[in-house]
Amino acid sequence: MAISVSKDLIAPFVDAVSNVFNTMIDIQIEKQGAYLLEEHKVQYDVSGVMGITGKLSGTIAVSFPKKLSCQVVSALLGEKLETFDETVVDGIGEVVNMISGDAKRLFENNGMGFEISLPAVVVGSNHKISSKSNVPHVLIVFQTGDGDEFAVQLALQVEY
Amino acid sequence: MTKVGNYLDKSVLKKFTISAMLGFSGGINGNSAVSFTKEHSIAVVSSLLQEMVDPNNEEVINDGVGEMVNMIVGMAKTLMAGKTDINIALPIIIMGDGHAICVREGTPQVFLIYKADEHLFSIQLAFKIES
Amino acid sequence: MVSLDIMVVDDSMVMRKIVVKTLKETGLEIGQVNEAKNGKEGLEKMKSNPPDIVFCDWNMPEMNGIDMVKAAREEFKLKDIPIVMVTTEANIDKIKEARDAGANGYVTKPFTAEKMKEKISQVLKRIKK
Questions:
Q1: Hey, are the CB atoms on A49 and B126 less than 8 Å from each other?
Q2: Which domains does chain B possess?
Q3: Of A10, A123, B6, C127, which is most buried, counting CB atoms within 10 Å of its CB?
């Protein structure tokens, strides 16, 4: 069953990811593909998660393999973090916070507002994320210059 | 059902394989999560739906666990009515052995472990009061 | 060029490090950098070691950013210290609230070193007048 997800809902989040990486995280990234979760099962070690409420509601998760999460936070803070610790976890929380905040700004410019809840970080090797089965769950995969991959997972619904 | 712990016990965390977390915003911004072992999630969702759930039906179990956290936050919202109002997001389901849901250092967080029959499950809540 | 003594007030250690990192990337001469975890600590440190400019988060425990700005404006020693709010969102209401409280400007996340540098020049120039 093909579920269509409006590109208008996804694009601002993709732009927000690019904005945050371009301004704050000195790691080259490129969008590699967009999928429905059913077609592309993924597992990650660290996910920054945020709830979205309002006319647009749902969840956003930014998921990384462990090593890349350390590299991302190292670049974010301007210090070399070798071990995965609370600083990395807090850093990933800040990453999802900034991406959500920037997406919110982009949606507001287009007349659709939402509020963001509180960032949380899921820590656990090879975890999977999903949402309610009647909400399309979109996966956008990004690749770094080194060939590592991370994903933004979105489960969104619009209230009419 | 008895509360058996209120601290982050890493050995307990390893047992939980499925969590549902739900964010909310408004007068209070935060999230709540409920975590179960695989066997308990099947039992809980079966009880919720009043029918035996197929252990391999990931979709139904995920929806059921999502509904559990939705009910918990929904009840909290009702209890807060009149004092403050919150809007609820969509549940996010996390699957994986030994996962933890962490919040930023300094954020008030409550982590409770309950025992129901022989099963352990946890409920956690993190929040930030919006000034 | 005279070096700038900075204070960063934010309950997130990660956010404080990000602000400090970005300030260093501006290329401006940065002198002393002091950090505070909330508005109350921020006020105390501002009194004991007045900085040239303060970067302050909005929501913090004990005393939030807006209340810190208001309190600073009441104190003779602190009323002229430039304070820039660092925020995830900048809607009209929030901007007005910050301005009314006495903040000198705001920066929205994510921010580049360029944006930071521009904001600092803007704020300090306004003060010089």
A1: no
A2: 2-129 (3.40.1550.10)
A3: A123
Report, as an integer, the average pLDDT of B17-25: 96
SS3 label, residue C49: coil
CB contact under 8 A, C61 and B131: no
pLDDT tens, position by position, A36-67: 988 888 899 999 999 999 999 999 999 999 99
Please list the residues that pair with C127 across neighbouring strands.
Answer: none
Q: Tell me the domain boundaries of chain C.
A: 4-124
> Which among C13, C37, C64 has the least Cβ separation from residue B131?
C64
Give domain status of residue A2, yes or no: no
Question: Which of C61, C66, C67 faces B106 most closely, judged by CB atoms?
Answer: C61
Burial of B118 (0-12, 13-18, 19+ CB in 10 A): exposed
CA distance B48 to B42: 10
Q: Which residues of A touch C110 (CB under 8 A)?
A: 19-20, 23-24, 98, 102
Residue with tokens 């919202």: B77
Q: How many domains does chain A have?
A: 1
- Alpha-carbon distance C110 to C125, whole Å? 24
Q: Which of A19, A21, A24, A117 to mutate to test the interface with C (most CBs of C within 10 A)?
A: A24
The CATH number of the domain where A55 resides is what? 3.40.1550.10
pLDDT tens readout for residues C64-117: 999 999 999 999 989 999 999 998 777 788 889 999 999 999 998 889 999 999
State which CATH number among 3.40.50.2000, 1.10.1740.10, 3.40.50.2300, 3.90.226.10 fits the domain covering C4-124. Answer: 3.40.50.2300
Q: Which residues contact B60 (CB under 8 A, 6 or more apart)?
A: B45, B49, B53, B54
C-alpha separations of C40 from B43, C10, C36, C59, C65 in Å: 49, 11, 8, 12, 9
Question: Which amino acid type is present at position C25?
Answer: E
DSSP annotation of B53: P
Size of interface A-B (CB pairs under 8 A): 138
In a domain, A1, yes or no: no
C: neighbours with 3+ CB pairs under 8 Å? A, B
